[in-house]
Amino acid sequence: MSLTAPADRRAGRGAHVLDPRSRAGARARPIGMITRGTTGQNRLRRCDRWIAAVYGPLLRSAAPPLVVDLGFGASHVTTLELFTRLRRVCPSVEVVGVEIDPARVAAAKPYEREGLSFTLGGFELPVGRPPLLVRAFNVLRQYEEEAAWAHWDLLRSGIHPDGVIVEGTCSEVGHRATWVALGAEGPRTLTFAARFTGFERPSDLAERLPKTLIHRNVPGERIHAFLTDWDRAWAACAPFGAFGMRQRWIKTAELLARDWPVATAPPLGGRSRWRLGELTLPWSAVAP
Ligand SMILES: C[S@@+](CC[C@H](N)C(=O)[O-])C[C@H]1O[C@@H](n2cnc3c(N)ncnc32)[C@H](O)[C@@H]1O
Question: Which fold has domain 6-193?
Answer without folding.
Answer: Rossmann fold (3.40.50)
